[in-house]
Specification:
With 233 residues, the chain is an alpha+beta fold. It has two domains: 32 residues; 172 residues, Muramoyl-pentapeptide Carboxypeptidase, domain 2 (2-Layer Sandwich). 41% of the residues lie in helices and 17% in strands. Strands 5, 6, 7, 8 and 9 form a five-stranded antiparallel beta sheet that branches. The chain has a two-stranded antiparallel sheet with strand order 1-2. The chain has a two-stranded antiparallel sheet with strand order 3-4. A hairpin with a 2-residue loop joins strand 1 and strand 2. Helix 3 crosses helix 4.
């Protein structure tokens, strides 16, 4: 902020200030404009929020996010955080230019929905499998609406099982290469299960908003836990 000295003449963006009152008027106007701009750009959303097996979703979190509805690959209505969806669509368009078709599988889940997912996996698979891939209610990234599970369409066939997607390393290498450009990271990396608490999921993307943060995480093969721990130190 440019300040005007007492009883002195000083140029502030072409406006001559000769007395205190005039200087204060110009400064107040500039202050007001900057405050309004800052307010418009501020957000209550913590895009680096950590929700994992040790960190529970804050109970007031869901009231602070703006959800929008969209159809997923199975024509089901799901909800995603507004900006995360916008950037996902940009990512999808960029991948389509390389003949890679990604589709939405799931994103936001309520606590009740997460309980249903856990119960289904435990029933259809087994407990050990559920513990590797599914979070218990209140400890799922999907509660944040910043996590997006994708599936891919190859030769007109939808591939949605995690094991089948792991069998497509070339496709996912190209997908993962573009994530950071749109503010996304790969959340559950291969060989980092001891840190994330979950097995490798090539489809589980996480929106962190800041492209520079996303690039630092992806370029260095970090988990979100490692990045946040690095910031703390």
């Amino acid at each position: 902020m440019t300040a005007c000295g007492n009883k002195s003449e000083e140029n502030l963006e072409g406006v001559s200030c000769s007395i205190d009152s005039e200087c204060e008027t110009v400064a107040d106007t500039e202050n007001s404009e900057k405050t309004e701009d800052t307010t418009e750009n501020q957000t209550d959303i913590d895009y680096l929020i950590l929700v994992n097996k040790e960190n529970k979703l804050p109970e007031d979190r869901e009231s602070k996010i703006e959800l929008v509805e969209v159809q997923n690959a199975y024509d089901e209505t799901i909800r995603v955080e507004k900006e995360a969806l916008e950037k996902y669509n940009e990512l999808r368009d960029a991948l389509l230019e390389e003949w890679i078709d990604i589709e939405l599988d799931s994103s936001y889940r309520s606590v009740e929905k997460q309980q249903q997912v856990w119960d289904d996996f435990e029933k259809e698979k087994w407990l050990e499998y559920a513990q590797k891939y599914v979070a218990v209610p209140w400890y799922s990234e999907h509660h944040t609406a910043l996590a997006i599970d994708i599936c891919i369409k190859k030769d007109g066939v939808l591939i949605y099982e995690n094991e089948d997607m792991i069998a497509e390393p070339e496709i996912f290498a190209k997908i993962h290469e573009k994530l950071a450009d749109y503010g996304f990271i790969l959340r559950y990396l291969e060989w980092k299960e001891d840190i994330t608490g979950y097995s490798y999921e090539p489809r589980h993307l996480r929106y962190v908003w800041d492209v520079n943060v996303a690039k630092e995480i992806m370029d260095n093969g970090l988990t979100l836990e490692e990045y946040l721990n690095k910031l703390e130190k």
